[in-house]
Fold this sequence. Notes:
544 residues, six-stranded mixed beta sheet, six-stranded antiparallel beta sheet
Amino acid sequence: MKTILLFVLTFISGLSSAQNIVEPEKIENSVQKNYLHKIVFLDKAVPLENLKESDFSKTMTFQEDKNFDIRIFLDNSLVNYLHQLDSSLTADELLRKGNYQFNFIVDGKLIYTENLNTGAGTADSKKVKTSLRIPFLSTANEDSWGRYLWMRFYLANGGIDALEAGNHVLKIEIKPYLKTSALKVGDVIATGEIQLIVPQKNISEDRIAIQKIMPDSGWKVSEEKFNQKKIKDLNRKIAENRFREITGVVVIKKEKLLLEEYFNGYQRDSLNDTRSVGKSFSSALMGIAIKEGYLKNENLRLKELYDTKKFKNYSSQKDSVTIKSLLTMSSGFAGNDQDEESPGNEENMYPTDNWVTFVLNLPMSENKIGKTWSYFTAGVVLTGDILDKAVPKGLENYAQKKLFHPLGITNYQWQFTPQQKPSLAGGLKMSALDFAKFGQLYQNKGIWNGRQVLDKNWIKKSFTNYFTGNKDFEGYGYLFWRKVYKIGNKSFESYQSSGNGGNKIIIFTGIPVVMVITAKAYNKPYAHLQVDKMVQEFLLPAVL
Length: 544
């Protein structure tokens, strides 16, 4: 009998170790025991040891300036749920490849699914924690991954439209996911729902009305008709804060000003900090300098422009970096702004006392020059230095004389490098109407007021997608993004200058339309997604 009992205990112990790669924390809290595999909702932050069932909210009036928390009760830690998906990986490997999947369901309809970034949450907590508090909205402005998860659901992926004024049921499901050669998603490990009462917002008619184009814009005013209801609907969403921190919308059609509207205290003469929109001006100035013979062509290599052996991490590959590869963000430098660990991440550049030296000191990556795209702000700073050294009287004077003056742009502000040179990384400020002139110059094949300011062949090169092999990437030209908008079964290709906050100069290639949208939703996960929605669902349908 003792032998049988020992065998059973050994079997159970072996089964437990097969399920758990790490011993999770003990579940001792009585509330957690009663609510395993449940998600509960709260209107205040309550530590687990003080939590009572009476703290849970089954119905809540949803207000964005109030606390909105969830508490998740699990019977195991994340790493052990992932271990059940693939028992061959170590704990650290599992956490590098997996996390929680969140599903947001409103009134029975799945609105948004997110496989949470593997960097969300600490490794230690994901190895042992079985109870998670996640603040979605916090009056204390807590900086948590939950806050950004909620933003992506609510503001970028349809949540705010699903939760329109009225009564709704919000349900959340959580599953473990693992991304190895393929995506593996486990069963639901926690679920919960809440009745949300969303109040009606009272917006005055004058905030919805289409704004009249005032005289002295510098543009001929279009007399073409457009769908006014679409624009009023757009204005309502901006007024209701459904599209956030939008400061201006300008639409040019057939070289005439069709729509000009400003929001959130901005006016026609406001200078907009459009961040990386300024990168595209480097592309234009490079094209002008090459056309005038100050630089031979965009295939010039760094070794023809700098004594590369004087800088750190010298290699023959660095010698072979071309101006074109800098313009297409495929230079092969170890620089990627979308990777916090990248040596050339722009946040590593700004504290240094010489940004150009920072770039030229960087090591090279394994990527082949001209083949692999990665967003690399520091490389655009280098194009600015190349221009500044090549053109007479320096870049600032050259830009004013060859680009801004011909376009009639007189009120603008550069951001400067530590050497007090114009920074082509971004930060160029000007009015929305002046940004529209830059876009229209490209729409006009480089001609402005009968003068060829920019070579049309350079524009053709700039508006070429050099990365056609990536299905998940719409494309990139010479410091212009390619973006295709779809309405029904029709597609509308554009090339655009794009900057942090949701700032855009959009030049359509198949229709005579230029749009400028200025915004200040800096570093917000919804910034660009909401602007794309504005264009696709409101502006394009209104003006076509």
